[in-house]
Amino acid sequence: MVEIEYRPYQKIVVHEIRKLDVPEFFKSIIEQTEAQKQAGIPAVNWIDGVAFVIGQFPPTPETISESLKGIIHYAVVNFTETSFQDEKRALVNSREFPVRMIRAEKNPDFVELVKYLKTFEPASAAP
Q: pLDDT by residue (tens digit) across 84-94?
């Protein structure tokens, strides 16, 4: 019989965090989708008043090694504070585009990430 072991991540390291206002956040989602020529409706995660997207690092020997040690690195997290709707609309270049919102409360890592984002204060620029 095979042995199964569950090893959740122990640490999440976020290298860049961007808090955007609601229109800017959804506009950026649409612009990225359009620039990458992706088909379909883009989607964002949502938990407890926060919509967010995660930019991953590519799978390199270093990032894979870190993952196996229980440490995940996110290149960037963009987020905004907004209420949940199945779909939000964003205006880009005088056209309206839909963006799906996906409830992500069942992912414990995302729940902890959103708790952190809600308390995040960007460092002020040096004078």
A: 999 998 888 88
Sign of the dihedral defined by the CA atoms of residues 29, 30, 36, 39, in that order:
positive
3-state secondary structure of 1: coil
Q: Between β-strands 87-92 and 95-103, what pairing exists: parallel, antiparallel or unpaired?
A: antiparallel
Residue 104 neighbours by CB distance under 10 Å:
19
**CA separation for the pair 127, 125 (Å, rounded):** 6
The pTM assigned to this predicted structure is: 0.88
Length of the chain: 127
Q: Is 21 exposed, middle or buried (0-12, 13-18, 19+ CB in 10 A)?
A: exposed
8 Å CB contact between 19 and 46: no
**pLDDT, tens digit, 9 for 90 and up, residues 115-126:** 999 999 877 555
| Residues forming a β-bridge with 101 | 44
N-terminal to C-terminal alpha carbon distance within the chain:
63
